[in-house]
Amino acid sequence: MKYIIVGIGNFGGYLAKRLTNLGHEVIGVDTSESRIEMIKDSITHSIVMDATDQAAVKNLPLKDTDVVIIAIGEDIGASIMSTAIFKQLKSKRIIARAINDLHETVIQAIGVDEIIHPEEETADRLSKRLEMKGVLDSLEISDEYNIVEVKVPKRYLEMTVAEADIRKEYYLNILTVIKIEQKKNLLGINTPHKNVIGVVTPDYKFAPEDILLLFGKIKNIQDFLHLGD
Question: Residues in domain RCK N-terminal (predicted)?
Fold first, then answer.
C-alpha cells in the first residue's frame, strides 16, 4: 500500500519508518528540512513541503495513495488546513491526529475517515492495524492473539450468528456487535458514535454496517479478513 504521512515528528516519523519496514511505500512530508534530513534514508520518499499550500499538495500522487495520515502534533491550525486540503482534493482515506477535544470536533466536521490519539495508540499498534487490511481497530493481547473490530463481510448479511458459525470455521469468538449511530457534536454536526449491543445470541441476524468485535489468533483473523465478499 502507499501512504502519505504529513508531520514527521516523533509519532509521524516512527510510524513512517515502521510502515516502510513492513514493506509499504511511504511519502513523508514536513516543513522542517532537519526532520526530513534525519528520516530521508529510512523511508521510501521524503519531501520538504508546506501541506497547507494547496498548489503544492496537488503535486503529490494522491490518486495512487491509499491512505493519507495527518500526524502534525503541535500546530493545530496547520493540521486543520492540511486536513481540509487533502479532503477537498478527494483523498481516498484520511486518518488525522487529534490534539485536543476541540481539534477533534473540527476535523470530524471536515469529514476524516478516522481520528487517532497518539497518547492512547502507539505508532507500533497503528502500523500493525494498518497492515491488517479491513481492521477498524485492534488490541494486541499477546504475540499470537488479538481483539479486532471488523466490518461484517457481505456474505454473512441476513445470516444469524448460528448460521454463520464463524467460531467453527475460523476459530474466532464474536465478543459483541457494534452499531454506529449518528449524534450531534458541539457544532451541531452529526458524527458517528459506537453503540455496543452487548452479549450476542445465536439468533442475532447480521445487518449492513455491523461491526464485529472478534477474539482469536492473528493468523485466523487474517484468514477471515481475506475472505472474499
Answer: 1-116
